[in-house]
Amino acid sequence: MRAAKPLARLQALLHFHLFLLWTHGRKSDYSEEEIQILLNLHNFYRRQVDPPAANMQKLEWQNELASMAQDWADTCTFEHGQPERDRQPFEDIGQNLNKFTSSNLKRLDSLEARTHIPLRTWWDEVTWYDFSSDQCLGPICGHYTQLVWARTKYVGCGYLNGTRCPGKFTYVVCNYGPTGNIGLNPKQPYIRGEPCSKCDSRHGWCDDKLCITCTDQACACPLKCKNCGILNAKNCTCTCTEGWDYADCSGGLSPDIQTVLHAHQCAIQNRK
Ligand SMILES: *[C@@H]1O[C@H](CO)[C@@H](O)[C@H](O)[C@H]1NC(C)=O
Ligand SMILES: *[C@@H]1O[C@H](CO)[C@@H](O)[C@H](O)[C@H]1NC(C)=O
């Protein structure tokens, strides 16, 4: 057991160096300050979804995704795509693009054009998206659904200063891992419900409606265990009774009949 610690350290070090090795694209042109603004905007919008989301993950920045976005932006190709890489940080990477044009050069080269305008444009597609039917009732919803895709954990963006490609515009590329807009059926971007009640991690740690991992265990834990599940306050999880699933034990992978049966048993227990 004693030898485990240095070994773990060595592994961490190796992992770090391997990571550096395959981060061979150039760094994002976004400054540290702008990265923070982009992240905050993403998470701001993810908190606004209506109906509320039970499994919305708080996004973190990933340099590898950002580097790929920057390399792609630099090609002046106004279509979805990724630069060639030996290895990708995710098998499937989502992508949002925004090309902002203006006759006003100062406006083109503004913080607003690099951060607030693209995010706002993507979010505004919400007016066309109908959650209940999972239908897009307007020209496009895919940027919105990627922006609020619950299971996406990382984002990384790059941009092109409007004067470097033919024409005048600011071009923003954001990459998302894992990708949104696939995998669920129906393909709604998130599970509707009490915020942080169905986090993928199965923990209920919550930062203002967004699922987080908590290392110091001092995070808010609003988790309420349903159907006779028992709360473990220490790691903010529920131990569910048999047949129940999700972090808050509110759903079942089991057939409906079994679910009804368990609900009944639970009701009897509660009455005692
Ligand atoms: C964008 O390009 C213009 C013109 O080349 C330059 O003056 C400006 O500093 C650039 N802005 C950024 C943020 O790189
Ligand atoms: C949380 O704590 C409970 C009780 O100690 C334990 O049974 C469970 O495995 C833990 N869950 C996780 C995900 O760590």
UniProtKB/TrEMBL annotation:
SCP domain boundaries: 33-184
Signal sequence bounds: 1-25
Cellular component GO terms, alphabetical: extracellular region
Domain of life of the source: Eukaryota
CDD domains (UniProt xref): CAP_euk
Coiled coil: none
Residues that span the membrane, as ranges: none
Gene3D superfamilies, A to Z: CAP
Keywords recorded for this protein, A-Z: Signal
Cross-referenced Pfam families: CAP
Family: Belongs to the CRISP family.
Name of the protein this chain belongs to: GLIPR1-like protein 1 isoform X3
Organism: Geotrypetes seraphini
Gene designation per UniProt: LOC117358625
